[in-house]
């Protein structure tokens, strides 16, 4: 009877729970401890290997415009005279945000030789004053791997506007507060001075591009509206054309005034005093947790491996 009870208790014994796991970890405390130490050591190696990066940021707001007839009322007024002027589907302010990392802005940045040499310093030979491929011990191996995988191999060439666009894509971020009507442009780079200068140049290029675009469009509209005004005789149509013409002349004046056209900065570009990347506390916490989990897993596996296999019951 006692043997049967013992067998029954053995068969119905529940799986080890949390208390059993804690007991195993207490018995093999060396494994979690070593795991935590190794995890923190790995985190410190990563923090020392990754180049710290600083954030340069600039807050911008839409330029105040009384009326904004060009985007709301101009098309309706001109339509009275049988003129089709496309209504803008997006404000100039949001266009500024859209083109910051665009090819047009990148092309203007690429024309700035001094800035390009700072952006791609690892490819610029200052002594010889020429562009050279960045040192890469695995270049041949990479080419062979790409050829094996049928991946097109791009031959090296000096940095151009495509490289600048990729550079900005990887470093620029936008944060827009639609309730306040404020957007923050953030550029992250290991060189805080370069981050500031590049953000200033990028914003200026975007605003200049929109200014030139609006200048050309307004000038074309003015010529077209002036011609129509000389042909139309109906008073109502002439009034609509005159108002549309006045609005285009006002936009042309704004485009040529030299003041911010689409987005106005709220102060100067600011650079953080301390690196914002990598996040030190987050990396250390991740190393601690990952190391602890790895050590605990090793302790549980070892305990499981040392357990004797249960005797097979005879039929």
Helicity level: 55-70%
Tell me the Rg in angstroms: 33 Å
Oligomer: single chain
Low-confidence stretches: 4-15, 66-90
Helix and strand element order: HHHEHHHHEEHHEEHHEEH
Helix/strand structural class: alpha+beta
Briefly summarize what is shown.
Helix content is 57%, strand content 10%.
Task: Give a structural overview.
With 315 residues, this protein is of the alpha+beta class. Helix content is 57%, strand content 10%. The strands form 2 sheets. Strands 1, 4, 5, 6 and 7 form a 5-stranded antiparallel beta sheet that branches. A two-stranded antiparallel sheet has the order 2-3. α5 crosses α10 and α6 crosses α10. About 12% of the residues have low confidence.
